[in-house]
Design brief:
Keywords: Coiled coil, Cytoplasm. With 325 residues, this protein is an all-alpha fold. The chain has seven helices and two strands. Strands 1-2 form a two-stranded antiparallel ribbon.
């Protein structure tokens, strides 16, 4: 029962490490190398987005097909049948050095090659994580104000979650294969191996806990990003309605201003006509006053003439009275 339990735990750890390595290779195959940033390949990104974006960052490229890296080829060579794979650093312990000195030279070389491959995978995994981080930061700065950036960010988060899951499975597979290799070598120092296994198991549990927390944080970040996108969309809809209302009001104000301008023109024309009429009335009034004065003058002259005409008649009458019969 003890050997079966140990074998199950080692298998679980080996699957964990194996999935980690496969996650690294999946990220490498998913993204193509660029001088400044790690650009997602068009074949994978098109499957997520459905159509090609207009920006150059995610533009599809026919000259960048999926390819295997030297790290992938080395990893595949290390998985060939007939080669034993053990835990990284296992050949450096005093116990494993005793077994390796007593074992064949090929087995020692295999352990060292596997350790070298695993170290290279870890370095490449760290490099890919840095590239993913800077790519996400760059995309967030460049497309922060758009809804499309939220969806792209969500896709990148999902890809990172899947990569972390693959990383966890890879580590578990490495632990399982290490247990098989250690069990085939010897059982003389089971206590020492058990101690090393428990340390590896604790390390894997710690890594699993960290990855689980990272996954939860990423899921929460994706949920918040989705909620923020929905709020932004709602605010955009409200702003759109307000813009439409303001446009209608502006059109109404423009129409009223046009009517007021026309009314002002009519009023100005009316005032000008009224001023002209007032001027005409004033001129006519002046003419009328002049004619009235002329009439008064003529009337006065007429009275004078009548008086002058009456005077001879009166003189004749007076002369007639004075002449004797």
């Amino acid at each position: 029962m003890r050997g079966s339990s140990c074998h199950g735990d080692w298998c679980y750890s080996f699957v964990l490490y194996n999935d980690i390595a496969q996650g690294v290779l999946l990220c490498r195959d998913y993204c193509s190398d660029n001088e400044k940033a790690m650009v997602p390949r068009a074949s994978h990104m098109t499957a997520f987005l459905g159509d090609a974006p207009e920006q150059g960052l995610l533009a599809p490229s026919e000259e960048d097909p999926p390819r295997q890296t030297p790290m992938l080829e080395d990893c595949e060579m290390s998985r060939c049948p007939g080669q034993a794979q053990t835990l990284p650093g296992l050949d450096q312990s005093p116990l494993m050095q005793t077994h390796l000195l007593s074992g064949p030279l090929v087995q020692t070389q295999t352990l060292r090659d596997f350790e070298k491959h695993l170290n290279d995978l870890k370095k490449e995994n760290f490099s890919l994580k840095l590239r993913i981080y800077f790519l996400e930061e760059r995309m967030q700065q460049k497309y922060e104000a758009s809804r499309e950036d939220v969806y792209k960010r969500n896709i990148e988060l999902k890809v990172e979650v899947e990569s972390l899951k693959r990383e966890l499975q890879e580590k578990q597979q490495v632990l399982d294969k290490t247990w098989v290799a250690a069990e085939s070598l010897t059982n003389r120092n089971e206590a020492e191996l058990r101690r090393q296994y428990e340390e590896r198991q604790q390390e894997s549990e710690h890594v699993y806990e960290l990855l689980e927390n990272k996954v939860q944080l990423l899921q929460e970040e994706a949920r918040l990003a989705k909620s923020e996108a929905e709020k932004t969309a709602a605010l955009a809809e409200v702003e759109k309605e307000r813009c439409q209302e303001l446009t209608e009001k502006l059109k109404e104000i423009s129409r009223k201003e046009e009517e007021a301008r026309k009314a002002q023109v009519l009023l100005d024309n009316y005032c000008a006509a009224l001023a002209q009429k007032n001027k005409t009335i004033e001129e006519l009034t002046q003419n009328l006053s002049a004619k009235e004065q002329l009439i008064e003058l003529l009337s006065t002259e007429k009275q004078n003439l009548l008086q002058r005409l009456e005077e001879p008649k009166e003189m004749e009458v007076q002369l007639g009275h004075c002449t004797p019969g």
